[in-house]
Amino acid sequence: MSKTDYLLAAALVAVFAAYSLGFGGPFLFDDFGALALNPLLQIDGTVFDEWRTAALSSRSGPLRRPIAMFSFALNSVAAGEIAPYYIKGVNALLHCLAGVFVYLLAQRLFLRVYPVRGSDSARWLALLAAAIWLLHPLHVSTVLYAVQRMAQLATLFMLVGLWVFVRYRARFAERGGTAGEVVAAGLWLALLTLFAAYSKENGALLPLLVLVVEVCFFRGEWAGRPCAPLRFAAVAALGLFFAALLAIMLLPPEFLSERFTRREFTLHERVLTQARLLWHYLAWLALPDISAMGFQHDDIPVSRSFTQPFGTLLAVLAWCAALLGAVLLRQRYPLVLFALLFYLVGHSVESSVWPLEMVYEHRNYAPSIGVCLLFASLLATPFYRSGNARRMAAPLAGVVLTGLLALLLIRVDTWSEEVRMAGVNVRNHPESSRSNYFYADALLKRYRNAEALGLGEEQAREALIAARFYFEQMYRTNPRDVAALVMLHSLDSQFAADAPGRRDWLAELEALLESRPLQASDRNALGELIGCVNAGGCTADAARILRLLGLLEARYPEDLAVLGYRFTYLLGSSASPAALQAVIDRALALNPGRREFLVRQIELQAQENDVDGMYESIRLWLKHDTRRLRLHTLQDLFIKAPDAAREP
After folding, report:
1. Residue 263 needs a FRET pair 20 to 30 A away by CA distance; which of 6, 98, 242, 618 works?
2. What percent of the chain has pLDDT over 90?
3. Structural domain ending residue among the three candidates 414, 442, 473
């Protein structure tokens, strides 16, 4: 092992130790639906089919991300539970492993860019690049956001794929390759692309990143000579990808535009906003101001046109100028073109035309790799000069890495405790409605768990008042957020029911639901409202709730989640079995295989000892559950069913 290998090992230990301070942090946002509340991950590992159903238990993305979900199942079996501590610990190990492959890949790329400097120089540059990537505080929101192991695994497999490609390609560039070697390289890349994509869909970008490496570093070279057809093919393939992406942005297909009907922005508005956000991400990478970072960034305004805000036009022009400059200077500064293309291709799924949330920091986990290689090269440039510049290179790199480590430690400490994390987020982003929500929710949990936390009556009361304040701040920053209205109605119903001049938040909610497209967070909030009403915590007469439900059903006649609200409300208000069955019939007419309603139907049939009906419902279930993902649910239903229902 070389000296740089030992230093890399030391860096990995330091990185893991730094992240270990945040293992006790909470589950967040998507962690609950995908992990904590996912019954298919609650397995003991003794039944083989449980591993299969756990791996296929994600509803995120068209591929269901089975490799990532299988890794969470391993976590569950090893720890005996789905716990944040163990999941985040494995995430930190994966981060370190990915850093090793950043180092291995960077060595070969730097040797290709700077052959006269030799392999020793390439190793030091690679170590610097890997250290910058490993220590960067922007990646805290990937490593400590438990469910984003999906992004980590996709990135890891892409890095392995790029390393395999560069090893083969360097050999082909020097002495050519046989058909068998070319096929072997292709098969390895295909396999690793599948692994990456089945961890998270943007792992399918591996072949495009291979093209970026080919265009920037190998340029069609084969057996020591330029090969114009190979070079043209790589450039053309990459160009066609960007042309196709641009065409979709300008003339989106109908099926894609329709998916934006449930967003409060259009496809074109999302694309224009991303032009600005990509510069935000780059700024956070280049100048890691942790006060600008956060879990939520919904305080960044949406671009409604090129001039609203005007910075949108400047951002688009800046991207055009950057690409043109990088292409013109590609011979002299190939790393600039590589970093730019790697960054843009890496963002091309989550930061382009798909109707996802506008901004999340974890989207930079893979795209930042090329940028970190460029930063390492720029930091080390003085070393290859003479005089004072050379003497200052190593101390400068040391200062940068020490600064990154300090920022990483501060940010990890922030993420280690829910109230602290939420408080820092809302302090850094006071105009973010979601940051206000998460802080208010954390304070409300503190109030509800006051006795377990050893809080006095006055401290609990202060937490409750602060929670109410930040829910109102959430409403102030975004009056069209359903969760703000639901939580204000809930708190005022429970703690200020007789207050004079009490505001009718429920009326505002009814008015809002007439026009607002339902977001995922809105749906969760409406579920909370129905649960609160059923529990007696939210004052609302039946007529108002039924009117609200009728409004939603009129706007979304085929939305089974909306029908689910009605069923839950009727169930909580002790409605007759006939009324409950009527809702189930409506839902199954829309989707005969909908599991949630079939479960309810079987439960009703079990109560009535309708054995024939139960078996017919099970037949429908199995007809539509072709992957047999929910057999354990059926078993549980029969275990809980009356004895008569289990008789043949």
Report:
1. 242
2. 60
3. 414
CA atoms of 627 and 328, how far apart (whole Å): 52
Place of tokens 């019954």: 39
Domain total for the chain? 2
Range of the domain at 372: 3-38+82-414
Rounded alpha-carbon distances, angstroms, from residue 427 to 17, 73, 292, 407, 604: 27, 36, 10, 17, 49
Assess if residue 116 is contained within a domain: yes
| Residues in the chain, pLDDT under 70 | 384-393, 630, 632-648
Express each pLDDT in 594-648 by its tens digit: 878 888 888 888 888 888 888 888 888 888 777 777 676 666 666 655 554 444 4
Q: Is residue 8 part of a domain?
A: yes
Task: Evaluate whether 170 touches 108 at the Cβ level (below 8 Å).
Answer: yes
Phi and psi for 222 in degrees, rounded to 5? -150, 125
Quick one: tokens of 123? 């190793």
| Residue 425 is assigned to a structural domain of this protein | no
Tell me the DSSP string of 232-265.
HHHHHHHHHHHHHHHHHHHS--HHHHHGGGGSSS
Q: Are 358 and 300 in contact (CB under 8 A)?
A: yes
How far is C-alpha 470 from the chain's CA centre?
A: 25
Task: Give the Cα separation of 363 and 190 in Å (integer).
Answer: 23
The two most distant CA atoms of the chain are separated, in Å, by 91
Q: Average model confidence (pLDDT) for the chain?
A: 90
Q: Which helix (DSSP H) or strand (DSSP E) does residue 85 occupy?
A: helix 84-113
Q: 253: burial class by Cβ within 10 Å (0-12, 13-18, 19+)? A: exposed
Task: Establish whether the linkage from the previous residue to 309 is cis, with ω within 30° of 0.
Answer: yes
**Among the three residues 414, 437, 457, which one is the final residue of a domain in this structure?**
414
| Chain segment 562-590, per-residue pLDDT in tens | 999 999 999 888 888 889 999 999 998 88
User: Within a domain: residue 174?
Assistant: yes
Sign of CA dihedral 129, 134, 140, 145: positive
Q: Rounded CA gap, 322 and 611, in Å?
A: 69
Helix or strand run (H / E) with residue 221? strand 221-222
DSSP SS3 for 568? helix
